[in-house]
Amino acid sequence: MKLDTWAELRRLDTDPDLRDQVKTVPDRRRAAETHTLPIGALTLWLDRLAETHADTQLRHRLAILQLEGFPSLLDHWTMRSEATTQAIDGAAIKRQFRRLQTQMSSLSEALKTCATPIEQEILRAQLSELCQFPIVPRTTASPVLERFWDTVFGRMMNGAELNHARRSDRFLALNFRHLARELAGAPAPIELTPELRSELKKSRHPYFLGVRVVNSRIARKSLRCWVFNLH
Fold it and tell me: Coil, strand or helix: which one is 18?
């Protein structure tokens, strides 16, 4: 399977989800630099190439590569890692990779139909995170963060309107001024301290996407919110 290197580099340079993923590393054998992509970004590139390339036979071969080639690559990577001090679970990596392929395809499809710039920004942030595969092992959430989420979701289950996101099935948007008033009246009040804010930036369940200006479904105006992905 042959590809035009310069044509593909130009393609990557015009792709908003991939252009920042291309890195150059020294190639001592050729006294030059080589362009590289993380495995996750390589997966996204091949996925899009398989959809858009004009050569039907090449698209078919790319589909086979995605199905069979990557597991072989991950096997080789796991075998090489056994010589290092960091133990890697090859089966777990493969399961993560299968989920990665599904998530990337789903997010790419969602990008084609999303209606607003804020949705595009959030989806692109998620794709950028997936491009860094292999995924860093999850860390245990701090007790401060767990108590915060238990309280927030507990209040929402009891009818409190805290989520300002219009796509409330998918995203959680919290305005801290509004939230502080709500949490002050909780049975065990929670203060939005600098420590808690720092922990919220590390939140993975739900996943922290960033601080954004959101068109609030509650206040019916633009508000600055901390946005999280619920899935």
Answer: coil
